[in-house]
């Protein structure tokens, strides 16, 4: 407790004592003491001047205040500690979730690559089984085409070939000289894809697919043009 608080307490205590004394004095017929003088005297008093009972009250009040201050400080420290613990726990949880998400993403990408590789190997084996023959059925020729292009482009490619040659890789236009599945004009153009362009549907498909991609961006682009113009 500060000096001011002690002096204030002394003033209050002395004033109370004087007031009681004054009442008693009046009752006894004595001249009452001046309250103002008593307050002035008490204002200059130190804790040593305060009666023992009052000193005990002052000390108790001081200890209570100190205990309250310590309790407040302890509560503040505990709150900060709890907040820091919560922050660390949240950071660790976020990091753990990110790590798990990264692992799941990497696993998914690896599985996709493995599937693509397996499909590519399977496609290569299937195509190898189909090419190099002396003759091909329409079903075999279509199977070769399906192996050589994206699935969403095959139907467009097939629509064009249906109209141009009916999937006959030896089809010849008697009037123009166009030849093969995609009716290249002249047919010798397809030699850029392979010297066996006259007998190998895979070579014809390769040339036709490159032509459609370069001129119309895709077989579906070529089919859109064909529908509008009946040629491509």
TrEMBL record:
Basic and acidic residues: bias regions: 99-127
Pfam family, one: SLT
Keyword Signal: yes
Top-level division of the source organism's lineage: Bacteria
InterPro entries for this protein: Lysozyme-like_dom_sf, Transglycosylase_SLT_dom_1
Region (Disordered): 81-127
Span of domain Transglycosylase SLT: 151-222
Keywords, ordered alphabetically: Signal
Leader sequence segment: 1-22
SUPFAM superfamilies in the cross-refs: Lysozyme-like (SSF53955)
Protein name as it appears in the record: Lytic transglycosylase domain-containing protein
């Amino acid at each position: 407790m500060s000096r001011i608080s002690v002096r204030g307490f002394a003033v209050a205590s002395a004033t109370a004592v004087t007031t009681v004394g004054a009442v008693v004095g009046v009752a006894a017929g004595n001249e009452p003491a001046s309250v103002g003088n008593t307050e002035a005297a008490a204002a200059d008093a130190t804790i040593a001047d305060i009666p023992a009972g009052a000193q005990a009250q002052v000390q108790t009040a001081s200890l209570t205040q100190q205990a309250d201050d310590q309790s407040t400080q302890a509560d503040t420290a505990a709150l900060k500690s709890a907040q820091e613990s919560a922050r660390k726990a949240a950071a660790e949880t976020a990091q753990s979730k990110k790590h798990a998400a990264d692992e799941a993403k990497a696993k998914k990408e690896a599985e996709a690559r493995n599937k693509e590789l397996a499909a590519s190997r399977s496609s290569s084996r299937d195509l190898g089984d189909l090419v190099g023959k002396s003759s091909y059925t329409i079903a075999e020729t279509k199977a070769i085409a399906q192996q050589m292009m994206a699935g969403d482009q095959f139907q467009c490619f097939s629509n064009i070939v249906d109209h141009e040659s009916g999937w006959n890789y030896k089809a010849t236009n008697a009037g123009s000289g166009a030849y093969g599945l995609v009716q290249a004009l002249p047919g010798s153009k397809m030699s850029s894809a392979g010297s066996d362009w006259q007998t190998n549907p895979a070579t014809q498909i390769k040339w036709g697919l490159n032509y459609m991609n370069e001129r119309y961006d895709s077989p579906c682009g070529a089919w859109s043009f064909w529908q509008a113009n009946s040629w491509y």
